[in-house]
Amino acid sequence: MSVPAVMYVQSVTIRNFRSIQDETFELQPLSILVGKNNAGQSDLMRALRLLFEGTAKDFSPDDFYTDDQNIVLEAHLVNVEPFLCLSTDDRHRSKIQDDLVEGGLRLHKVVLPGAMAGKLEVYDPAAERFALKMGIDAALKQLLPEVTAVQDNHVFKICPPRRRPKGAFWMGSDDLRS
Predict the structure, then answer these.
(1) CA 162 → CA 3, 9, 91, 147, 157, distances in Å?
(2) How many CA atoms lie within 13 A of 146 on its CB side?
(3) What phi and psi, each to the nearest 5 degrees, are found at residue 13?
(4) What is the mean pLDDT of residues 104-131?
(5) For 72-89, b where at least 16 C-beta lie within 10 A, e where not — what string?
(6) Among 129, 141, 55, 73, which Cα is nearest to 99's?
(7) Cα–Cα distance between 113 and 104 in angstroms, integer?
(8) pTM of the predicted structure, to 2 decimals
(9) What is the CB-side half-sphere exposure of residue 89 using CA atoms within 13 A?
(10) Could you tell me the domains of the chain?
(11) How many Å apart are CA 76 and CA 2, to the nearest integer?
């Protein structure tokens, strides 16, 4: 019996963001963040949301660990290729497919102190560097579920709702207590 592939963030690197100076987190398809209050679990979740959906207005001076360095957010999504069929638009699908490396996708965003947030960049395997790709945000929104967090037996949506392809799974704010 084989286990079906699951698209997930395999690793996330965060530099100079809130309580995280410079750290790479290796994740599994289901990862549980456990720690004392103010240990950085919420900062990791916020960084992921800002990487995928953040705009300049979502960042503040308080987000910088030190105010003289850029914030750098980077994630590696794996098993993306089997889920391209969820994209309802061929143009969106091709924007992602062109940059897949071994079925995965690397994303990157830089925020300069006192300046606007950078655009979401995708690793371009042909150029061997991160590059801007027009419309990548819209293409990814068709594939990625909402970022959620569980805290004190409740499930919370971290980002605002958006339109999903037919049949896409959604988890709302539910009480997990029996």
Answers:
(1) 29, 20, 19, 12, 12
(2) 19
(3) -110, 130
(4) 90
(5) bbbbbbbbbbebbebbee
(6) 129
(7) 30
(8) 0.79
(9) 13
(10) 8-157 (3.40.50.300)
(11) 24
